[in-house]
Write a structure and sequence with these properties.
By secondary structure, this protein is an alpha/beta fold. The chain has two domains: 226 residues, TIM Barrel, CATH 3.20.20.60; 46 residues, no CATH class. It is 44% helix and 12% strand. The chain contains twelve helices and eight strands. An eight-stranded parallel beta barrel has the order 1-2-3-4-5-6-7-8, surrounded by seven helices. Strand 7, helix 9 and strand 8 form a beta-alpha-beta unit. Helix 4 runs parallel beside helix 5 and helix 5 crosses helix 6. The longest helix is centred in the C-terminal third of the chain and has 20 residues. The radius of gyration is 20 Å and the shape is globular. It starts with 14 loop residues before the first helix and ends in a 9-residue tail after the last helix.
Length: 302
């Protein structure tokens, strides 16, 4: 995990180094810093900052373009600061025209993420697995991709997402994907194919392009086994909302216990112990730093 005091961290592979390896990069979705640390602690090589989860956690609302760039970048900064592994961040539509996209790239770079994806939806966007999406023209999106390439000041990986499959059909979406690659995108994110045949077509037609697969839990894309995704050549696989759904279920169950019994006593056996949780979020490290720099002890009391 990212050390509270930077300096002597064990180096982790960059996203580009991971992309050069034969195995697909598995990146579960984090909606805040704690979920990001849990993903890293579970041994995953990268974290995906989910826009859907960011909207749900920060606003308690659906992913329909309600969050602006500053709110998304702030969440990305907290997530990237909490882990040592690369963070892939949702940057929605880029938040405006190509000039605005240049600022978007700089802000996400300053936040410390390893990659961003921008999409060809008309703003305000919608989650890629919702109905009623609208697209910008292919020319406008190509201009945005070119702007992201020109704006880049770091080794940021640029992922271009197309939502055109659900709006214009598979062939037009594939054409958009090729144009975005030609404009300089490092990776193509073909959103929401709705059959295994479509997934296979995308992988075949874009076999010369690094591809991201969105394993959207409960979304429009059918569930595909890891071995098949690897066989088809997908380089990144994201799981955007599983952690958030699991947390929602666990919190709901705990609250039902408190509501029924008046206390959480019956649920405590299934929860992490308080001391265990303090260790996980880094209290021993803070205490060691306190010993080094301060004369005032930090306790473990609740």
């Amino acid at each position: 995990m990212s050390a509270f005091l930077d300096g002597k961290q064990t180096p982790t592979p960059s996203l580009r180094e991971l992309l050069a390896r034969p195995e697909p990069i598995l990146a579960p979705g984090a909606y805040d810093a704690l979920s990001a640390r849990l993903i890293e602690a579970a041994g995953f090589p990268a974290v995906y900052m989910t826009g859907f989860g960011s909207a749900a956690s920060l606003l308690g609302r659906p992913d329909v373009g309600l969050l602006g760039m500053s709110e998304m970048v702030d969440n990305a900064r907290r997530i990237a600061g909490a882990v040592a592994v690369p963070v892939i961040a949702d940057a929605d539509t880029g938040y405006g025209n190509p000039i605005t996209v240049i600022r978007t790239v700089h802000e996400y770079e300053n936040a410390g993420v390893a990659a961003i994806h921008i999409e060809d939806q008309l703003s305000p966007k919608k989650c890629g697995h919702m109905e009623g999406k609208q697209l910008v023209s292919v020319e406008d999106m190509v201009a945005k991709v070119r702007a992201t390439v020109a704006a880049r000041r770091t080794d940021l990986v640029l992922i271009a997402r197309t939502d055109a499959g659900a709006v214009e059909g598979l062939d037009d979406a594939l054409n958009r994907a090729r144009l975005y690659r030609e404009a300089g995108a490092d990776v193509i994110f073909f959103e929401a194919p709705q059959s295994e045949a479509d997934i296979e077509t995308v992988a075949h037609e874009l076999s010369d392009v690094p591809l991201l697969f969105n394993w959207a839990e409960g979304g429009k894309t059918p569930p595909i086994a890891y071995a098949r995704l690897r066989e088809l050549g997908f380089r990144i696989v994201i799981f955007p909302i599983g952690a958030m759904l699991a947390a929602t279920r666990a919190i709901r169950d705990l609250l039902q216990t408190i509501r029924a019994d008046g206390t959480p006593a019956a649920a405590l056996a299934g929860l992490p112990r308080f001391g265990e949780f303090l260790d996980f979020i880094g209290l021993p490290e803070i205490q060691a730093l306190e010993q080094r720099f301060s004369s005032q002890p930090i306790g473990r009391e609740a």
